[in-house]
Specification:
globular; two-stranded antiparallel sheet; mainly alpha; 314 residues; 4 strands
């Protein structure tokens, strides 16, 4: 078992401990480290030392930059620490009231393309023999980007293609509809892009880190957990501006200066997104568990313990 997973097994079983770890992992200063330094840090953890003897800086650098299945250094912009800086401008732009459907589609395309690539880079790849994406994964990814781009732009499409003139209906389409829509699009996108894990299975381990085999049931659970966490991230991000404006609307400052509503809305999108990233990443353990009776029969016979462990991915 990779040392990154061993660390998550030891330190990341409660929400608050995972949240604390993710806050450190998401520090953007780790992006300044060279690949050679990252590989040295990961090599130190492979040295067979006890967890108590591991260097904290090396642990954080390894967790933030190295894939737990392949052991390879992740591409710079696809590391967790780059997720906020790469996604936040795209998320804010996707919530703008665009004057043209083309602009809405363009920003959604950029956002969904990055989200799909991030999901692929941080998936569970333990059952894959080749580092290259399969043709099925490429087709699913391309289809997901196209679908998510159109679905994410649905409020703007409805307003302009249907000729909606009512300000009330426009407000509902721009503020209320994006909440369930963003959550649904995020869930379906992750579920589709990582569907191969449910088809081929992922590696499961016993408590000592020994490989037991490949489990489709664990793959399905890993994908579902990640999809739920991503839905929570984008659904909450879409809800924060509406709730904030509703609360602030009663204040005299906002009533006198309604021009402040737009900048406050988009600042709240960025802040809500940034705050929700470590929360959503912490909802489920990176090294999750599945009961022995819920996996395939051949694995039940091979397993000696009641719980098996698997890498959830991100």
């Amino acid at each position: 078992m990779d040392p990154n997973l061993l660390f998550w097994k030891s330190e990341g079983q409660s929400f608050f401990s995972r949240f604390k770890i993710w806050v450190n992992i998401l520090d953007p200063t780790s992006l300044l480290s060279s690949d050679a330094k990252i590989e040295r840090a990961h090599g130190l953890l492979r040295g067979g030392q006890k967890l108590d003897d591991w260097n904290e800086e090396a642990v954080t650098l390894s967790l933030s930059s190295v894939h737990a299945d392949s052991g390879d250094v992740l591409p710079l912009m696809l590391r967790p620490a780059a997720f906020l800086s790469a996604s936040a401008p795209l998320v804010v732009a996707s919530f703008l009231p665009h004057t043209n459907v083309k602009y809405a589609l363009l920003w959604q395309f950029f956002l969904q393309s990055y989200q799909t690539r991030f999901t692929l880079a941080n998936r569970n790849s333990s059952s894959e023999k080749s580092k290259k994406l399969s043709s099925r994964q490429l087709l699913l990814s391309a289809g997901t980007v196209c679908y998510a781009t159109c679905a994410g732009s649905l409020p703007q499409i409805m307003i302009y293609k249907l000729g909606v003139s009512s300000e009330v209906i426009k407000a509902v389409l721009r503020t209320m509809l994006p909440i369930p829509l963003s959550a649904a699009v995020a869930f379906i996108s992750v579920y589709t892009v990582r569907s191969e894990e449910s088809q081929t299975g992922i590696q499961v381990f016993d408590s000592n880190g020994n490989l037991v085999g490949l489990s489709k049931a664990a793959g399905h659970k890993a994908v579902k957990e990640t999809a739920l966490s991503r839905a929570a991230l984008f659904g909450t991000t879409a809800a924060v501006p509406s709730l904030l404006i509703t609360l602030l609307w009663r204040t005299r400052v906002i009533q006198k200066s309604s021009v402040l509503i737009a900048p406050l809305r988009y600042m709240s999108v960025a802040m809500g997104f940034g705050l929700m990233i470590p929360v959503s990443f912490s909802l489920f353990p990176q090294l999750s568990t599945i009961k022995k009776e819920n996996v395939e029969k051949n694995l039940q016979e091979a397993a000696c313990e009641g719980l098996l462990y698997y890498h959830r991915g991100l």
